[in-house]
Amino acid sequence: MNPVLTFIVVLIGLYGLATSKNIIKSVFCVTIIESGVILLFLNFANYEGGAIPIVSEDVAAIVDPLPHALMITTIVIGSAVTALALIICIKVFHHYGSTEWAQILRREDVK
Amino acid sequence: MSRKIILVAALGILFVMFFLSMEEMEDLFKNDAKLYFFEHGLDDTGSSNLITAILLDYRLFDSLFEAGILLVAVSGVIWISRHDFEERNAHFMLDKYKTPELFVTLSRFVFPLLLMLGFFIILNGHLTPGGGFQGGAVVATAILLLYYINLERKTDISLIVAVVKFAYLGIVLTASISLITRGEIFTNFMAVDAPTMSKYIYIIALDILIGINVALCLWAIFTAFLKEGR
Fold it and tell me: What is the ipTM of this complex?
């Protein structure tokens, strides 16, 4: 798979982040950008004929295990960030009665 | 409308910049650095799975703060979702009349299998793809099925967080034993010239602790969400 395609995933996430009207959709867009970054790194590590990085008798060449290890960190931190963002979304909904950006920003007590 | 055109143009500029710099980036991880891991990884760490070897030995400092960030996130979620009134599970998510009976029955059947798969992934982190983080997520998924089986289930979040704190302390202490045995911190505590087969005791111990940490953290986060919907 081409790294260009993974960057298109990142661009889709950025477009959604700029145009989405709902807070929860914005959180989803952050997740989409994150998965684009993960795919990008795994693409860089991958090459023709490289086996998964587990040492055994019949493995001649492996892909670089370092980006795989880094991406586990990305996934864990991404899940933590998403959980925090969504719980703040719920709090905002309970406080303002809406999760639309426009309706929350229109209120007097926000300014 | 003009805003969207400007946005698409800006994204197009980003795309072109990425396209121009891609040829340099493509060789980033295709150099000979992976040969070092391939030749020395098993002897250094006792782990056939080189990703686990990097996570739990070469770059353990990363993993420590990774588990720490999860703990901080759980603390934040619980602090934000704190209430004064009596808490109970949200019924729009787990409604007895909306959840199909088939789903509940299937959950009872899948729960032990999923739990077993999670423990398998945790304990075989040094041989097969997997490890503490992945297996912990599977175990947490199995635990979440319990909420479908028993809708009125009560969970004490403060107890979970207390156990998670001790698990995290255990991770740090297990990683620090090497300061005494080897003289350097955050690496394998078995001696350098120990046989490779005995070195994976350290990998399994750390995998189990990280698995407990991740599973309980995700459980606490889900419980906080469940109690938030009211």
Answer: 0.86
Does residue B149 belong to any structural domain of this protein?
A: yes
Distance from chain centroid for Cα A35: 4
| Number of separate domains in chain B | 1
Nearest to A44 among B29, B77, B228 (CB): B29
DSSP string, B12-28: HHHHHHHHHHHHHHHTT
Decide if B203 touches A, using CB distance below 8 A: no
Q: A76 contacts in B (CB within 8 Å)? A: 66, 69-70, 133, 214
Q: Tell me, what DSSP letter sits at residue B39?
A: H
CB A54 within 8 A of CB B48: yes
Kindly state the tokens that stand for B166: 């001790």
Domain holding B86, by residue range, is 31-228
> Cα–Cα distance between B146 and B142 in angstroms, integer?
7
Set out the domains of chain A in order of their start, with CATH numbers.
Answer: 3-110 (1.10.287.3510)
B26 touches chain A (CB under 8 A): yes
**Tens digits of per-residue pLDDT, B90-148?**
665 566 666 778 888 898 999 999 999 999 999 998 888 888 899 999 999 999 888 87
- Among B145, B54, B146, B228, which Cα is nearest to A67's? B54
What separation in angstroms does the CA of B83 have from each of A89, B163, B226?
Answer: 16, 22, 13
Tens of pLDDT, residues A81-93: 999 999 999 888 8
B127/A contact by beta carbon, under 8 A: yes
Of A32, A7, A11, A12, nearest in space to B26 by CA: A7
Mean pLDDT for B166-183 is 90
